[in-house]
Amino acid sequence: MDKIIRDLPARALEKSVENKKYFKKLKSKQRKRLDLLMQEIHEAEFENTDCLSCANCCKTTSPIFTEKDISRISKFLKMKERNFISQYLRRDEDDFMVLQSSPCTFLDQDNSCFIYEVRPRACSEYPHTNRKKFAQLTDLTLKNTEICPAVYNIVETLKEKLPL
C-alpha cells in the first residue's frame, strides 16, 4: 500500500489532462444515469478497498468542520467548543474551519479514528464519489485522485463504463 500511495500523485498528474477533458464532456452532456452508475462503481471499489490500510486522506488533508461537527465532537470529548476550536482548529484561506495540522489529530497508529462515531460530516462522506449530483463534484474528485487510491480507480472505471 505504501508504494501505491507514494506513486499516486504522479499517476494522478499523468491522467490529469485526460480526466479534466473527460469531466468537462461529462458535465456538458448531463448523463442521465450518472449518479446510479457512480453508486455502483463506488460500492464495487469499496468492497475491495480497506481504508484502514491506507488512511492517506487522514494523513494528508483536513476535512472542513461545520458548526454542527464542532458541537458534536467537543461534546463527545467533553470539551467546551471554544477550547476545542483553539486546541485543534484554525480558519483556512477560504474561511473554513480545518485542522491545525496533518496528519489528523484523531488518527491512531492503526489508522483508526478516535472520534469515528462523531467524526466530521466531510469525513463520513469522503471520498464523495457516491453522492447525488456527482457531476457537480468533479473538481473535488480530480483533487481526490491524488489522495485516495480508490478515487483514482473509480475515475478510471467510470471512463471505461461510460466512454465519451
Summarize the structure in words.
By secondary structure, the protein is mainly alpha-helical. Helix 1 crosses helix 8 (149-161). It has helices spanning 2-29, 34-47, 56-60, 67-76, 81-88, 121-125, 138-144, 149-161, and strands at residues 89-91, 97-99. The relative contact order is 0.21. Strand 1 and strand 2 form a beta hairpin. It has 8 helices and 2 strands.
The shape, in one word, is globular
Q: What integer is the average pLDDT?
A: 96
Number of strands: 2
Q: How much strand?
A: under 5%
Rg, please?
17 Å
Strand order of the largest sheet: 1-2
Number of helices: 8
Offer a quick outline of the entry.
With 164 residues, the protein is mainly α.
Q: Could you name the key traits of this structure?
A:
single chain, globular, mainly alpha, 8 helices
What is the topology?
Elements: H1 2-29, H2 34-47, H3 56-60, H4 67-76, H5 81-88, E1 89-91, E2 97-99, H6 121-125, H7 138-144, H8 149-161
Antiparallel strand pairs: 1-2
Helix pairs in contact: 1-8, 2-8, 4-5
